[in-house]
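ok so dumb question maybe but i'm new to this and my supervisor (M.) told me to 'just get the structure for Putative cyclopropane fatty acid synthase' and walked off. so i did the thing. is this what she meant?? sequence i used:
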Amino acid sequence: FEMTEFNLNTSLQKETAVNFLDRLNIYFYHKDRHKKWPSNPPKILGWRDEESQLSRFRIIAKQHDFNHKSVLDLGCGYGDFKPYLDQNYDIA
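this is what came out, is it supposed to look like this??
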């Protein structure tokens, strides 16, 4: 039993360390991009340009009927998808 408990704790520690390193890596990725393109949110987020971001939004929007729906825009970004939907759909 003690060995299993030890393995669980070690596994949890590794998972926590990896999670922290992943988060740190993401933080520095975006921090570096923000320095390079401070006034270009799509570039900061990793898009080639604003048009490539909008192209992705159009593809997502074609897959669903967003009219008269509520949308909660969660994820990694600045919430740019919601304004796109507001401009193109009758969002509730």
